[in-house]
Amino acid sequence: MLALAFPLLLSVSFGFTPTTTVGSLPNIKSSLNARLEPVPPLASAPLLLRAARGEKVERPPVWMMRQAGRHIAEYRELVKKYPTFRERSEIPDVAVEVSLQPWRNYQTDGCILFSDILTPLPGLGLDFDIEEKRGPVMRPVRSWEAVNKMKLIDPFESCPFVDEALRTLRKEVNDETTVLGFVGCPYTLATYLVEGGTSANYFEIKKMMSTDPALLHQMLKNIAESIAEYACYQIEAGAQVIQVFDSWAGHLSPRDYDTFAAPYQKMVLDAVKTRHPEVPTIMYIKHSGALLERMAKTGVDIVSLDWTVDMAEGRARLDAARSEAGLAGRTGVQGNLDPALLFADDETIVERTKEIIAKAGDTGHVMNLGHGIEADTSEEKAKLFVDTVRNYRY
Predict the structure, then answer these.
(1) Which of 15, 160, 214, 220 is packed most tightly, with the most Cβ within 10 A?
(2) CA-CA distance, 304 to 282, in Å (whole number)?
(3) What is the pLDDT, as a whole number, of residue 13?
(4) Which helix (H) or strand (E) holds 135?
(5) DSSP state, residue 152
(6) Which pLDDT does position 37 carry in this prediction?
């Protein structure tokens, strides 16, 4: 797979020159379909895809968030050759190799693209870098001038490597495996833009909510339109399920969540469903226990629970909220084993995994961790977790 001998020279510039302006979401006329050869459908849907659609399955499907999660020895060896995250995620063969590692090692039912929620930002005219110890770094976006220069993404131009990687993944995995794509939601992406990187308290974006909410709303709208395009681009390249991350929305008050997060989540989800109604969507928010009802009301197909929520209680809350919103069917669930439990003894890992599966029930559940796998998790423990799910039968 990795027959690469050339270095990638990443030129990160914080300046940009706009070439297009952002329009309103209903008027987006994507050229993607005209430029893509469709990925051929499978003869029968794989287990994870069937579960995500709410179909009865023989056992819960399983995969683990954070892809290789830095805990696989092969990944650490690969980092020595490709030391920057952007190399690993933007060279297609490398991204494919990292994506395949947990699938190949553990036989997970899902294989998610190795990438980052920030990957599409250069396509909006907003460049960034990822420093290994510091994390994302970018020029803060805090003015109307900067927001008005944002472009509507052309994914073919800005991130063709994503198309190539997804198409290759669909060929590499077997027909029993679901390929997942993912995007960041507008509010979480805006936190990075306004703060200029990661943040401990999100002070700058919360200040903008109070001092210039119109500016923030325009930024969020611009992001939503491009992320909707980017999500559809991934689907048209082969992603069978899309997970949307609004990781930092859990730091908002309920009122601010309703104002600055939920409407833009829904813009992305609605756009995906308009163009690809058959593709299931999953939403993850860290520390989302207080937000489950609000998440369900967006119409997302599956809500990914972290470990702070009891699975049975979470299902009941989601069902009630979906019914209250007048939405048909049940909201599916994903999760929600605490990643720290993978450091427990084998008996505890098996017991707690089975407990979650039993509480989730036999329909609409994708087994996963409640957050990304920790870097120092042993491969043996990760395999035990996956094997426990794979050997389970309803």
Answers:
(1) 220
(2) 7
(3) 33
(4) strand 135-137
(5) P
(6) 56
- For residue 67, what are the CA distances in angstroms to 44, 149, 160? 25, 33, 21
The one-letter code for the residue type at 288 is: S
Q: Residues of 1-19 as b/e, b for ≥16 C-beta within 10 angstroms? A: eeeeeeeeeeeeeeebeee
Q: Return the structure tokens found at 20.
A: 């297009």
Instruction: List the domain boundaries for the chain.
Output: 57-390
Query: Is the CB of residue 11 less than 8 Å from the CB of residue 87?
Result: no
Task: Give the side-chain half-sphere CA count within 13 A for 22.
Answer: 25
Whole-number Cα distances in Å, 115 to 44, 67, 99, 165, 235: 27, 9, 9, 10, 15
Residues 6+ apart with CB under 8 A from 38: 236
Pairing relationship of beta strands 281-284 and 332-334 according to DSSP bridges = unpaired
Q: What is the mean pLDDT of residues 328-332?
A: 95
- Assigned token pair, 21: 């302006």
Predicted confidence at residue 130, as pLDDT, reads 84
- pTM for the whole thing? 0.89
DSSP lists the bridge partners of residue 333 as 303, 365
Dist CA 118 CA 115 (whole Å): 8
Tokens found for residue 41: 């459908």
- Cα-Cα-Cα-Cα dihedral sign, residues 208, 213, 217, 218: negative
